[in-house]
Amino acid sequence: MESASLATGLTGTRMSALPEVVTIKRTRLESVDIVRGAIMIIMALDHTRDFLGNSGLNPTNPATTTIPLFFTRWITHFCAPVFFLLTGTGAYLSLRRKSKSELSRFLFTRGLWLIFLEVVVVRDLGWQFNFDYHLTILMVIWALGWAMITLSALVYLPAWLVAAFGVLMIAGHNLLDSVQWSNPLWSILHTPNVIFTNSQHTVFVAYPLIPWLGVTAAGYGLGQIFDWTPERRKAFLLRLGIVMITAFIVLRAINIYGDPSRWSTQKSPAFTVLSFLNTTKYPPSLLYLLMTLGPAMLFLWAVDGKTPRFLRPALVIGKVPMFYYLLHIPLIHMLALIICYARYGHVYWMFQSPDLGHFPITAPPGWGLSLPFIYLAWAFVVVTLYPLCRWFAGLKQRRSDAWLSYF
């Protein structure tokens, strides 16, 4: 948003304009930052459970899970889709201060930077705490980097066309589920799999690029609504959220298209609901994205134009999401080290490369805290990081150094 002041003075019967220095202050959209910050906070819960919980227990399998464990995992499903979507939205909004060529260069270079962070910094100093490179898993930051690189080319197209590209990829990519192609390129694009392995090293793609590229493109198109009047924008977000949630319920009930995993009747009505909600994340199915992005539209609608006091911490974190992300994983890993040493007197498990079935750590025998302790650890992580995020958000507000935009 822009604000300007103009002073006029009267001398006798003559009116003379006395122009002052016009100050233009561009502010971030708080609603976007609030939603982004909220999903970053929730994301830390999932990663706390990854490090401190029982990695051998599938939290979304209705046959083995519990209801609290299922929803501890399910609520975190909102994180990646919303983050990819708002990455695209933020790119569109940055056109208020950048030309398309400037935005394209920024997206391309930041995308390369994110891929480097995923493969080197996040892997070594966050997830693994080692440099042996026995196992590399290409995850969300890697896919986000490629989404930015792709968007760096798409920004030269009309925003509506970029949005159409994104929606088409989201809606249609499940038509490719039956394609079985044992090829590294296909694993990078659509089907999670090992793309390289030998006796020393394995590379696994956990986040194939389709349809994450489409989610980011759709988010770029969504950015147009923030040029509308608040009334029109809020009405659109409300309708869009309701339509997406309704589409999820109807398509999931039909149980034919939109997710490779079908729901089925379980041992109780409650667990049947769990099966209904247990959609596919890797790669994210159409139903998975409708289930998560529909409520996200309602969240954007609810906080548009107002910031509830209890969401102020989310607003702060939402202004510095990458800074928060880069800090929260090593903090959780360090917390796991402390708990491991207190319990076993050794921590060497925490420095060994895990296998694909027990990522992110090689857990010691009997490892895994109960859910209440996981929630306490999660709260500790968020509370610890909040002052650092507030400091960094203030630094970004006070300074305009180019390097700050990459964090």
Write a brief caption for the model.
This protein is mostly helical.
Largest sheet: 3 strands, mixed
**Total count of strands:** 5
The first-to-last residue Cα distance is: 23 Å
Strand/helix succession: EEHHHHEHHHEEHHHHHHH
Low-confidence stretches: 1-26
Query: How would the global form be characterised?
Result: globular
Average predicted local confidence, pLDDT:
90
Number of domains: 1
The rounded Rg comes to 23 Å
Number of helices: 14
How much of the sequence lies in strands comes to 5-15%
Structural class: mainly alpha
The share of residues in helices is: 55-70%
* Strand order in space, largest sheet: 3-5-4
Q: Describe it for me?
A:
With about 400 residues, the chain is mainly α. It has one domain (about 30-405). The chain is built from 14 helices and 5 strands. The protein has helices spanning about 30-50, 65-75, 80-95, 100-130, 140-155, 160-170, 185-190, 210-220, 230-255, 270-275, 285-305, 310-320, 320-345, 370-400; strands spanning about 5-10, 15-20, 135-140, 195, 200-205. A 3-stranded mixed sheet has the order 3-5-4. β4 and β5 (about 200-205) form a beta hairpin. α5 packs across α8. The longest helix has 29 residues, at about 100-130. The radius of gyration is 23 Å and the shape is globular. The model is unreliable at about 1-25 (pLDDT under 50).
